[in-house]
C-alpha cells in the first residue's frame, strides 16, 4: 500500500503486537499507526477503507488475543496526548477514548467526583472499557455514559446521545465506531470517601485475582448468574496447560502466558474449557476477550 507522504513516515510496518497486549502474545501488524489527532486518524480510516483494508483499534490491549500469524491490515493505537485529554464540567467528566482508566479514577477523585472507583485495577482505556462495557462488583461503565463522540470507519464524526447508546453485560452497540471521547455523568463526593473506596476495591481485587503472569483478564463471560470461573474449576481444569499457556490456579477463568505461550495454545485451552463445561453442565461459554485473526 502506498500511503500519502503526510502519513507514510508515521505508519510503521511489521510491528510486533505482543509488545502492545497484556497477554504478550501475537504476531506482527502489517501496518501500525498512532495518530496525533482526529485529522490524521480520519485520513488513515478513509484511506484504509478505499484500499479495502481491515482496521483494528487498539487501546491498552488488555482484552485482546492476537493471532500468532499477525494481522493483515491497519492497527490504530490511540495513545497520543490528544486522545488522553480529560476535563471536568460540573458533575461531568469529558475524557479521551485513549485515557487510561487509572488516570480517569485519579482525575475524578481530585475533582471530588465519585462513580468510577469500581473500575480500580482494570487495566484498560476509556474507549476499550466502553466498547466492552467493562465492569466489576456489580457495576459497569456504560451506566455512566452520557454522550460519546465517535468516528465511523469512513471517518465521519458524530455524537451519540445517551438514548442512542446500548449497553449490556460486557457488550455495547459501539462496534462500528472509534470512540474519541466520552462524557460521563458522576456524583459529587468527598475526597477521603473516594480514596477509601479505591483502596477497598484494590484490596478486594488483589484477594480475588492474584496472577503474576501476563494475561487478558477473564477469558469467558459469566453465563447468566453462574460464574464461569467456578464452572471451569468444577471441571478440575485449574493448572491445565497447552504449550506455555496455563489455566490459573488462583482464578480458573484466567489463562496465563507462562513465558512464550502462543495464541494457538490459548485457543486450544479455550476449546478444551468450552467442551468440558458443556459436557458437565450443558452450558456454552462465550469468550469475553476479543480474538483478532
Ligand atoms: C488483569 C486484568 C484484569 C481485568 N479485569 C477486568 C474486570 O474486572 N472487568 C472487566 O470488564 N474487564 C477486565 N479486564 C479486561 C480489560 O482490562 C477491559 O476489558 C478493558 O476495558 C479493555 O480496555 P483496553 O483499552 O485494554 O482495550 P483493548 O484490549 O485494547 O481492546 C478491547 C476492544 O475494545 C476496542 N477498542 C479499544 N479502544 C477503542 C476505541 N477508542 N474505540 C473503539 N474501540 C476500541 C478494541 O478494538 C477491542 O475490540 C481485565 C484485564 C486484565 C489484564
The gist of it:
This protein is α+β, with helices and mostly antiparallel strands and 293 residues long.
What does this structure look like?
With about 290 residues, this protein is of the alpha+beta class. The protein has three domains: about 70 residues, Uridine Diphospho-n-acetylenolpyruvylglucosamine Reductase, domain 2 (2-Layer Sandwich), CATH 3.30.43.10; about 130 residues, Uridine Diphospho-n-acetylenolpyruvylglucosamine Reductase, domain 3, CATH 3.30.465.10; about 60 residues, Alpha-Beta Complex (Uridine Diphospho-n-acetylenolpyruvylglucosamine Reductase, domain 1). Helices cover about 25% and strands about 25% of the residues. The protein contains seven helices and 20 strands. A five-stranded antiparallel sheet has the order 6-7-15-11-12. β17 and β18 form a beta hairpin. The protein is globular, with a radius of gyration of 19 Å. The site of flavin-adenine dinucleotide (FAD) has 30 residues, from β3, α4, β9 and β15.
